[in-house]
Amino acid sequence: MAKIDLRPLSLTELKALKARVEKAIERHDKKQKGKALALVKAKAKELGFSLDELTGGAKVQKIAAKKPAKAAYRHPNDASKTWAGRGARPLWLKDALNSGKSLEDFKI
User: Which of 13, 67, 89, 99 to pair with 52, CA 20 to 30 A apart?
Assistant: First the structure.
């Protein structure tokens, strides 16, 4: 591989080069995955199967974004403030619990 002297490049030029390299890597990966998939499909066909038959009908799919959890607790005075019961408790709920309220008071 040819050695490239990056020292004379400005930060802007380096960032542009980085973006181009990342895109080139993505294109390369996509091409390689396509070749691998074609080989696997051909081998499956050679053996008398479809790829779906061998994988239990599972098709390659993009991972769907997780839906937010359904709200389980609601602020008594502001219905837009909710909490699903996961993660850190919101400040409004912490304050209410510290003042003597029960978590059940906010259950939806």
Answer: 67
